[in-house]
User: What shape does this take?
Amino acid sequence: MVNINPLTKWSASSHRWRFFRSGGLDQVRLENSTDLLALETLDQKLWAALSCPTRGLAFDNKTLDFIDTNKDGRIRVPEIVAAVQWACAMLKNPDDLTLSEAALPLSAINDNTPEGKQLLASARQILKNLCKDHHAAISAEDTADTAKIFAHTRFNGDGIVLPEASDDASLQQCIQDIIACCGSELDRSGENGVSRPLVEQFFKAARAYSQWWTLAESDAANVLPLADATEMAAAAFKAVQPKVDDFFARCRLAAFDARAAGPLNRAKKEYVALAQQLLSASVGEVADFPLAKIEAGRALPLSEGLNPAWSNAIAALCAHVTQPLLGARDQLTDKEWALLTARFQAYELWLTKKDGATVERLGLARVRALLAGNTEQRILDLIAQDMALEPEANAIVAVDKLVHFYRDLFHLLNNFVSLRDFYSGKSKAVFQAGTLYLDGRSCELCIRVDDVAKHSALATLSRIYLAYCECSRPDSSEKITIAAAFTAGDSDQLMTGRNGVFYDRAGRDWDAVIIKIIEHPISIRQAFWSPYKRIGRMVGEQIEKLASSRDKTTQDQAAAAIASAGQKLDGAKAAAPVPFDVAKFAGIFAAIGLAVGALGTAFASIVTGFLGLKLWQMPLALVGLVLILSGPSMLIAALKLRQRNLGPLLDANGWAVNTRAKINLVFGRALTDIAKLPVGSERSLEDPFAEKTRPWGVYLFLLAVALLGLVLWQQGHIAKWLNLGEGITTLSTPAEPTQ
Assistant: This one.
């Protein structure tokens, strides 16, 4: 691994770097192996990213794991440099690394070095094991299934041998015995086998087990009083020992004091309680009773008068212990029981020294048979034979690594050293999860998110309008969450709960629903219309409130009138109708007239001022009015749109973005495509369901003419025109002669 100290000042390099500009960002151009091998000297301040996670990307996880040499789940600059240098060293022509082809030609592997030569031999061995000897290239699909690669080989260099590693049936059985007693390890072929530690553990246990039995055989009279039947007899003895000890202890206590005999036997009320149950010989309450009736100096009956719950266990004691050691009898005295207890003491002591229990299941005869020959050494020889192929087998892993680097590494560099894939638009970047279709738009900048709350806290700094969507598939329980960037159009119809469809990089479709929105300006066009939309919404809301208030007042008045109607009919005479009071309504009419006059005066002032302008000033006045209304919102939106930055989106996902990856207006429109008709398509404007329209244009024109006439009349223009006509008529009449 290449060690790079970021605190060290980079020395000047003779390599001539080339940069390209995209999205207002200067990025390094990687075109050939010379550029790749010089990456170590490229100032880290010029790298687009300094680290990225190994998961959550639209990229082969295995390639990322190969690069992540310290297995911390992150890719860093030194690991990228080390991967590039190793891959270039393994190729005859390092420029081939920029091809990013799926299959690695065998002829491209550099066999001029020992490592490369071994790697080439392993690549050919893989193809041979897969029955692809005639293939001239190897792909990641060929190296993916290790089990298939080693399926037809006895030895694969991992130090684990299978039973099939030997043709000797006795060795095969021994390996199976080791697996049964000590477990197994997974071979590269995917089968269970044994390693050197397991073999040594097994035979160590086998020797210990044999020696433990030798200890018993050296004092067989005491340790094994019944020879091979001692184990069964001891088990029968241990099964009843606590209960028999309890019986004789109670009898001795009764002999000490006759008054204890009654309480030591169960009370009558306990038998009464038992009588109400469905009894069987195995009832727990019965088993808790003494083995037999407690009496001073009484012997234990072995058949008659015995607690039925213990009859089978006592019968086993008689068959395996008392009869072989004491002979046939119907009862057992306290002294005889003490004698039997002493006979098994040596056996019990020997059991405490048991060793090698892991092989006990095989039996002493089988264990000693395995120890008699050189079975252990023969299996270890098989393992050594397998280990001899370790370099070749390990090179198979190197082949897999090189194949993945040959296919993926250059693609990763164009998403790490630079963001070329993202800004070029020719292919998706590794952090782009897919495409979201929603609200007549397709959003290309969609990023996988694990924690929406955590991600959104930092992602809002990107100044990008984000819609977090929860995606699910009807045929699977799998769910994912994405953050989709809307960079064109407007946000009028974007809201929580809105549904869409998300297509991931594999082409699978997901049902997507918006669960959270981070609002930022989307476009200048939206900012232009936003003041008028706000005014329209405000007017609509006020009208709705007024209508709702009037409707409520009407309903309340109607309810009050209905409630009082009965009282008026029953209690009093009908009141005389109130005569129309002209004076009362005169004020109302006057107020209405003043309001109309004020509105007319205001409108007249505006129109008069506009008409007072010169012809060339009128368009400028209209433009100025529009700028007054839309200018501030457009200016604010333009400033924010210039601040849109990809960095916070990726940083929130664990990246260390090292540059201001801006998303300007032009590039933003490329990331979000708005629905439009295809070029050359035909469109019919006939709509059979179109709403019938009224000539509102004519009505508005007539209203405008009327208002204009009213304004001209108030300003006296019409009167001037009329007076001018009278003056002309007067001048045409001859004057009377003076007297």
